[in-house]
Design goal:
CATH architecture of the largest domain: 3-Layer(aba) Sandwich
Structural class: alpha/beta
Number of helices: 26
CATH class of the largest domain: Alpha Beta
Shape: globular
Strand content: 15-25%
Strand order of the largest sheet: 15-16-14-17-18-13-19
Low-confidence stretches: none
CATH superfamily of the largest domain: P-loop containing nucleotide triphosphate hydrolases
Helix content: 25-40%
Largest sheet: 7 strands, parallel
Radius of gyration: 31 Å
Number of domains: 6
Length: about 800
């Protein structure tokens, strides 16, 4: 008897076992995809995990449907990495598999219905809906469930189909379909019939007399073939000859031309890719040599270089070195916006060897990157991507660069696996015996603490490239400016003065406000009511460009109200401000200048980031208003002034990391100013200019911030001194969430005593009609992490055994930062 354990792309605690034949057991290997039946009628794509001879004890093993691959689609190291993620972040292997594999690899079952030819049935025996399906099957051999939905024009079609199956009128079958469609490009060549000299002469004479346009196409084809010596695309021939595609089709129909298709990659590289890397200056060379030396002893190094110190050039040299020894490099970035700028730079150096992988890519594009990596192709020596690129099938990894390693977008919050890309990258590098370089101008406290403890190597770059001075940072006291009536809208007189001067000198400006929309609160000035989201405990944000109110948590939207829903008066006023309002005010203050906005609303499309970044780089935009997308490592040559509109809503956030994050965000956004010879200027508007964090930002003293924050973390037992596991409960019934969270907290306290905080409602305690409640578990340094997780899992299993709690969703978030 032969069996396989498979990983299914659904959250199951254990691998599921299926029965296979002897021949299949000899052919199958871990990592090959198989189609398996699961549940009553579902078919899933599963991954072979283990092959063995032990039958399952709790159920009879079913047989597999079919084998989908000849060779494994995932690698051994990849599987080990998935196992670590699943174990460390307390989720199932199936959830890691679903996050890692392109959707096109996970075939789906679509139920196909067909007519049972063996049975005769009278029309009168069928109900109206049943007759419609039966009639449709007279004209078509089979239908899918979706087709039936559109025929009957209603969602609930399964009862009707089940009745027909019971009557024996229909047959049901599950059919797998492949989602990945290779991209084929049409090419043309002269048909073999006309290849000889005489036949060609005949053809041209015939066309000369009858069809001059067709003759033009043939002559263009010759010219192209002679000049390029490569296959000719139909689209290229149409463009060059000025003919319509109908003329080319006519030539193909007459067998004068022959068309054929070649499979190509969707992501094409354009450029030479042979620019030599820049020569490093002394400070950079010194840092590069230090990194090389540390890598001989330590696996992880932190490169702490101030903004614009030229970290990317050091990365390029390190990548170059890895490529020379035949290794792959993974370059992780926190934000898709960053990849647009960086891909261009790296392609200039390394050409086709650069592959890009992130969530804005289509399924087919992701499959191509995956396949290139599996085949160890030259097109995938350097992978640039956001956090999901960690889960790709690396064959020969030599170095992982985690740029802007402090960024919170490296942490995945929903759905599972809730992994932190920086930490998972270090584990992946260890599996491949590779090195990890963490780079940042404002490292996270965790990484800097590890470096100061000697766990990681530390290299510092304290001067900007070409010895450009750090920007001059000025704090503007808003309370004082409002009191003296020196504000125009949300702009202080100092900020307007600086903007005017910068524009006169021909430089660009970035204005930062960490809220999108026009205004976060609409309030009635008569009765004080403000419109709330019906699904979440949060006020609706006003978006002026669509004249609607939107919820930033669940996406609910409604038209802007004309009068107050409570008292009926039309005295609605806006409170607070977002990027839209700043953009409008800038347009009024500087009507002749070009202003653009970069936030989630303006960068929705696949190329949304590229358009804005490119126009800003080419100086088509004078003033760019944006959210934190602007802060992350973008390199703009002509920005001389950065304005932070309101620093206080960053500092006053209810989170133990608020001060660390505020420092990082403000230091990063300040770093966009003055990246060439002229010194940049940063204006920070605040109601609290004496705040420690703001003083530290203005003097660029990271070490003071680190010392002060670490002191708080020691005193209040927070990371990096203690580890955290956050447990969130979700349910639509308020009382049920309360009871469940209390029960869980009580059980945890029996084991972990005073290290359990909560349960407590978060600041926004209802999202999408589900109430949320959190418990925070603190784990001291000496306490075993694996034993802690075991204890939690025991409590989790007992919790799920209680009938009333089964419907409550429990989310375990390890290292909640």
């Amino acid at each position: 008897m032969h069996f396989i354990d498979v990983i299914l792309p659904i959250p199951l605690q254990k691998a599921f076992t299926y029965h296979i034949t002897k021949a299949e057991s000899e052919f199958l290997k871990p990592g090959i995809r198989v189609a398996v039946p699961f549940g009553k009628s579902k078919i899933y794509t599963a991954l072979v995990y283990k092959i063995h001879n032990n039958p399952p004890t709790a159920y009879d093993a079913k047989t597999i449907h079919q084998i989908l691959d000849d060779t494994p689609v995932i690698t051994e190291h990849q599987l080990q990495h998935w196992e670590w993620i699943s174990q460390y972040y307390m989720c199932s292997l199936g959830e890691v598999m679903r996050a890692a594999m392109p959707n096109a690899f996970l075939l789906e079952s679509e139920t196909i219905i067909s007519k049972n030819e063996k049975i005769e049935i009278k029309d009168s025996e069928l109900k109206d809906d049943e007759f419609l399906i039966y009639e449709a099957l007279q004209h078509q051999s089979s239908l899918k469930i979706n087709d039936v939905v559109s025929i009957l024009d209603k969602k609930r079609v399964l009862p009707v189909i089940n009745d027909l199956v019971e009557k024996g009128v229909l047959n049901l079958q599950e059919e797998l379909y492949e989602k990945y469609q290779p991209k084929l490009v049409r090419y043309v060549k002269l048909h073999d019939n006309h290849k000889s000299q005489e036949k060609l002469q005949e053809l041209l004479e015939m066309l000369n007399s009858r069809a001059t346009k067709q003759r033009e196409v043939i002559l263009t084809l010759f010219t192209l073939e002679a000049s390029t010596k490569q296959p000719i695309k139909v689209s290229e021939l149409v463009e060059r000859s000025g003919a319509s595609s109908a003329i080319i089709k006519a030539l193909i129909d007459k067998t004068i031309l022959e068309e054929y298709h070649i499979r190509t990659d969707r992501i094409q590289f354009e450029g030479n890719g042979d620019i030599d890397a820049k020569v490093l200056n002394d400070a950079q060379q010194n840092a590069f040599d230090k990194i090389e030396t540390i890598f001989k002893e330590k696996a992880v190094t932190l490169l702490h270089g101030v903004t614009s110190s030229g970290k990317t050039e050091i990365y390029v040299q390190l990548i170059q070195k890895q490529l020379e020894s035949g290794k792959q490099v993974l370059y992780l970035l926190p934000e898709i916006a960053l990849t647009t700028q960086l891909v261009q730079r790296l392609q200039d150096y390394f050409g086709e060897k650069v592959a890009v992988f992130h969530s804005r890519y289509s399924g087919n594009e992701r499959v191509e990157v995956w396949n290139n990596m599996l085949n160890n192709s030259d097109k995938a020596r350097i992978i640039i991507g956001a956090r999901s690129s960690l889960l790709l099938p690396f064959k020969n990894l030599g170095l992982i660069i985690v740029d802007e390693e402090h960024e919170q977008s490296y942490k995945q919050f929903d759905p599972a696996p809730r992994y932190h890309a920086r930490d998972a990258a270090i584990v992946l590098a260890n599996l491949h015996k590779a090195k990890t370089l963490l780079g940042s101008a404002t490292p996270s406290l965790e990484s800097y603490y590890n470096a100061s403890q000697g766990k990681y190597g530390l290299v510092e770059l304290n001067t900007r490239y070409n010895n450009v001075l750090m920007p001059d940072i000025e704090l503007v006291d808003l309370a004082d400016k409002y009191k003296r009536k020196r504000m125009k809208g949300h702009f202080s007189d100092r900020l307007i003065e600086e903007i005017t001067e910068t524009l006169e000198q021909g430089f660009q400006i970035i204005l930062f406000q960490n809220r999108r929309g026009f205004s976060p609160i609409i309030e009635c000035t008569t009765c004080g009511t403000s419109p709330q989201c019906p699904n979440c405990d949060v006020s609706l944000t006003y978006h002026q460009y669509r004249d609607q109110l939107r919820c930033h948590y669940c996406g609910y939207n409604s038209a802007m109200l004309k009068s107050c829903q409570a008292c009926g008066n039309s005295t609605l006023d806006t409170k607070g401000f977002g990027t839209e309002q700043i953009e409008e005010e800038v347009r009024l203050l500087f009507p002749e200048k070009k202003v653009a906005r970069m936030d989630l609303d303006t960068t929705r499309g696949k190329y949304g980031f590229e358009k804005i970044i490119n126009s800003f780089e080419q100086r088509e935009i004078d003033i760019l208003v944006g959210t934190q997308m602007l802060t992350k490592g973008l390199d703009f040559r002509y920005v001389k002034l950065v304005g932070i509109m309101n620093a206080d809503n960053l500092l006053n956030f209810p989170d133990f990391r608020a001060h660390e994050r505020s420092y990082q965000l403000m230091a990063q956004v300040s770093g966009r100013a003055g990246r060439t010879d002229l010194r940049g200027k940063v204006i920070i508007q605040t109601y609290n200019p004496h705040h420690n964090i703001l003083q530290q930002v203005s003097t660029n003293s990271y070490k003071d911030m680190f010392a002060e924050q670490m002191n708080d973390r020691y005193n209040y037992k927070y990371p990096p001194i203690y580890r955290l596991i956050k447990i969130t409960f979700k349910h639509k019934d308020y009382n049920r969430v309360n009871l469940a969270a209390d029960w869980y907290a009580k059980s945890l306290r029996q084991v972990f005593k005073s290290n359990v905080l909560g349960p407590e409602f978060p600041p926004v305690s209802r999202i999408r009609n589900l109430y949320l409640k959190n418990i925070l578990l603190k784990i001291p340094e000496k306490q075993s992490l694996s034993k802690t997780k075991e204890a939690i899992m025991k409590i989790e299993n007992s919790f799920n055994a209680v009938k009333d709690f089964r419907a409550v969703r429990v989310i375990l978030n390890v290292d909640n930062y």
